[in-house]
Amino acid sequence: MKAVSGIYSTLNKISNLIQKVLEWIVVILVLSCAADLVLQVLYRFVLVHITSWSCTWTTEYAQDALIWITYLMVGICFKEGTMASVNVVYDRLSGKGKLALYFLTRLIIIIFLIAGIKFGWDAVLSVSTWRSTNLHLPGWCLHGAPFFGCILIGYEVVVEIFGVICGQIEPFAGRPPVEEEIELTKDEKEELRALEGE
C-alpha cells in the first residue's frame, strides 16, 4: 500500500499544480470575456452611433471563451466533488457496497471518457482546415475543448482511484482543496481563543 500511497501523493501534487495553472488561465478568460461583453454592449448601443468601425468578433470570442472556461474547470469540479450527483442508492449502501458502486461508476466514467477522447480527437482532426468566421481561429480552438476536458477528467479519475485504493480519500467524497496555512498574529490568536471559549 505504501507504493500506491506514494503514487497517489505524486499524482495529487501534479493535480494541484495543474489546478493552479488552470485557475489562472480561467481567471484571464473570465476577465477577457467580461471585457469583451462590455465592448459588445458599448458597440451596440453607443459606438455604433459614433463610428462605422465594425465589431463583429465579440460574440464569437465570448462563446469560445465560455466553452473553454467550462471544459477547463470540469476536471477541478470532478476533483473537488462539486459536480451534481444523486446519492439515493449510495446513502443506503454499507462499506463494501459503497466501494463496489464506486468502482462500477468509475468504470462507466472511464468508458465514457475513452469514447469522449476518441471522438473528441476525431472532431479536432475533422476541422483541421476549418477557420472560425470572424476571428479566423483554427478549428481546434473551439472543437478541442471537449477533448481537453475529457483528458482533464480522466487524469482526475485516475488520481481519485489511487486515493481510494490507498485509503487516503473516501469514495464519492472528492478531494477537498488544499488549504494554505495562515500565520495568526498574537492578537488574532487571543481573539480566536476568546471566541472558542464562549
Could you explain the architecture of this structure?
There is one protein chain. It contains six helices and no strands. It is an all-alpha fold and 198 residues long. It has one domain (2-175). α1 runs antiparallel to α2. The protein is extended and about 65 Å long. The mean pLDDT is 87.
Please report the total strand number as a whole number.
0
**CA radius of gyration:** 23 Å
Low-pLDDT parts are none
What global shape is seen?
extended
Structural class: mainly alpha
Distance, first to last CA: 43 Å
> In what range is the share of β-strand residues?
under 5%
Helix content: over 70%
Structural domains: how many:
1
A few lines on this structure:
Helices cover 74% and strands 0% of the residues. It is mainly α and 198 residues long.
Features:
198 residues, mainly alpha
Please render the helix and strand layout as text.
Elements: H1 2-50, H2 58-80, H3 88-92, H4 95-126, H5 140-165, H6 186-197
Helix pairs in contact: 1-2, 1-5, 2-5, 4-5
